UniProtKB/TrEMBL annotation:
Main location: cytoplasm
This protein's UniProt keywords: Cytoplasm, Redox-active center
Lineage: Eukaryota, Viridiplantae, Streptophyta, Embryophyta, Tracheophyta
Protein name: Peroxiredoxin-like 2A
PANTHER family hit by this protein: PEROXIREDOXIN-LIKE 2A, PTHR28630
CC per GO annotation: cytoplasm
Coiled coil (UniProt feature): none
Compartment list: Cytoplasm
Highest taxon in the source lineage: Eukaryota
Pfam families found in the cross-reference section: AhpC-TSA_2
Keyword Nucleotidyltransferase: no
Family classification: Belongs to the peroxiredoxin-like PRXL2 family. PRXL2A subfamily.
């Protein structure tokens, strides 16, 4: 899997010479560097060789083939010429393995955008929170990027409109959002199905969003900062504990609660420029602190802040107050969906991680700014499930729109109280 370390992305080729200039101009993380527009490249006086190198490395990063970056760049060929080489030439000239060759010449595939199988439709859940009476996010709207959202992202990016157009185009192509995609509700999970010929039933999951008081006072610890080039790979001094609510005091936040550090986080962090444009922070939450695992995880799969939840309180909140657990035999060997998830993850080229406690399931929270509440919650029903990126980004975009309109998100408790006081407000049925 392509690393989010700038040093590893740039490698030892022509881009290394202009690395100080890139940092000076604000291109200081891999996801942003990958969306540079032709205009941005001209501003820092990139040579054609450097432009070709960036195109090659971006392509390789998407396909988890960064180990070939220096060799391919040294050939002085542009990306289209390299892709059109025969399999024998790729093997003999660059030492590329057969499986990697197939991934390299397939222009439609990208490991960070591995789509869910068609059968993996999200199970509908009961919506437990509505932002306002006049601007509900549960009206069955299609997941599209409207003109208002595009204008907001362009302003937030603070770079050329061409850079925005490229990122927006990649976003649409990556997630294949269609007009028929309908938002399902703020508590989501993949479908359940009988295991081992129906004799083993999947464990139940909660139907309602976690109450905000269950998460705001969680004691957490920052294990890593936001990655910047040249910094130490880990903070040498241990950060003091802090309240979780400090994370989203000023900006909304996506909290990816992961069972084990690995490639799932890579898919989220690869879209960092879009989350930055929406004003949303990204955090990964771990329930174990194993130094070697954190070092392997950051910044290879995740270049953002890593949080340690020693009491596993976020994971308990996902389970309605108790940890969601499954045994290896019943939850994996007898579960066809978990096996499919494993095969899909393995196909991306990411190394599989089996260290530490792996029975506690995770998920994802999207939390509004301040005390506005939880806007979205995804639960890992089967080992290896993840929240659909298209839906995560859509929720974040609606949070941004509400903030611009000065319409605060209300908590589920406030919404329930409003329903009891005003019979004219009703929930939209979930389909």
């Amino acid at each position: 899997m392509g690393s989010f370390s700038m040093e590893e992305f740039v490698g030892n080729g022509s881009l290394k010479k202009i690395l100080p200039k890139l940092l000076e101009e604000g291109w200081d993380d891999v996801p942003s560097l990958k969306i540079m527009s032709p205009e941005d490249k001209n501003v820092i006086n990139m040579t054609q060789q450097q432009k070709d190198a960036l195109e090659i490395r971006t392509y390789l990063h998407d396909r988890a083939l960064m180990q070939y970056g220096d060799k391919l760049e040294a050939s002085r060929k542009c990306l289209p010429d390299l892709i059109n080489l025969s399999m024998s030439d790729l093997s003999s000239q660059f030492g590329m393995k057969r499986g990697h060759i197939v991934r390299f010449i397939d222009r439609t595939s990208a490991c960070v955008s591995d789509p869910l199988p068609p059968s993996y439709t999200l199970q509908a859940r009961k919506p437990s929170m509505i932002p306002s009476r006049n601007n509900s996010i549960y009206e069955g709207e299609s997941v599209t990027v409207n003109s208002r959202k595009m204008q907001s992202m362009r302003r937030s990016l603070g770079r050329s409109s061409a850079a925005f157009d490229v990122s927006h185009e990649k976003f649409m192509a990556t997630f294949k959002i269609k007009d028929g995609h309908v938002f399902k509700g703020i508590v989501a999970a993949m479908p359940a199905e009988p295991r081992a010929c129906g004799c083993i039933q999947p464990p139940p999951i909660v139907e309602d969003v976690a109450p905000y008081p269950a998460i705001e006072n969680i004691s957490i610890q920052k294990l890593t900062p936001e990655y910047k080039i040249g910094m130490e790979r880990l903070v040498k001094t241990k950060a003091p504990p802090m309240k979780a609510s400090e994370l989203w005091r000023d900006k909304p936040a996506v909290l990816l609660c992961i069972r084990r550090p690995g490639a799932e986080a890579h898919k989220i962090y690869a879209q960092k420029p879009i989350f930055d444009a929406l004003g949303v922070q990204l955090f990964t939450v771990l329930h174990e602190h194993i130094d070697t695992e954190v070092k392997d995880f950051w910044p290879r799969y995740w270049g953002g802040i890593v949080i340690y939840d020693a009491g596993m309180e976020f994971f308990k909140a996902l389970g309605g107050g108790k940890l969601l657990k499954d045994k290896f035999i019943s939850g994996f060997l007898f579960n066809p969906r978990a096996i499919a998830n494993y095969k899909r993850a393995k196909a991306t080229g990411a190394e599989q991680n089996f260290k530490g406690e792996g029975e506690t399931k995770g998920g994802l929270f999207i939390i509004g700014r301040g005390r506005s509440g939880i806007a979205y919650q995804f639960i890992e029903r089967n080992f290896g499930d993840w929240a659909p990126l298209a839906e995560v980004i859509e929720i974040c975009s609606r949070l941004q729109n509400q903030q611009q309109n000065m319409e605060p998100i209300r908590s589920s408790q406030e919404y329930e109280m409003d329903i009891s006081c005003n019979s004219s407000i009703s929930r939209v049925p979930v389909v």
